[in-house]
Design goal:
With 87 residues, this protein is mainly alpha-helical. It contains three helices and two strands; from the N terminus they run H-E-E-H-H. Strands 1-2 form a two-stranded antiparallel ribbon. A hairpin with a 2-residue loop joins strand 1 and strand 2. It is extended and about 50 Å long.
């Protein structure tokens, strides 16, 4: 989800209407471009809570910082525009 948000998620409107109708015209990251992920659950006496969501907020800045480290270019808007990386 976070990789999709950083790289692809762009909802556009034309003449006051959203152009994306469903996932067939709204790109999402597929497993072939996502890194291997290992999840560790820790035993706890606390009530159950979400285990997938905590990884979402730091992923987008991590991708942007990796791009900066590799290219020296800061990403200031999402989704990341590949054209910005070519110049």
């Amino acid at each position: 989800m976070a990789i999709s948000n950083a790289l692809y998620s762009n909802v556009s409107a034309k003449q006051g209407r959203i152009e994306q109708g469903n996932f067939d015209d709204y790109p999402v990251a597929r497993t072939d471009i996502t890194p291997d992920t290992r999840v560790y659950l820790v035993d706890s006496s606390a009530p159950p809570a979400g285990v997938g969501e905590p990884g979402v907020p730091p992923t987008m800045p991590a991708i942007c910082n990796a791009i900066y480290a590799a290219t020296g270019k800061r990403i200031r808007a999402l989704p990341i525009d590949p054209q910005l990386l070519k110049t």
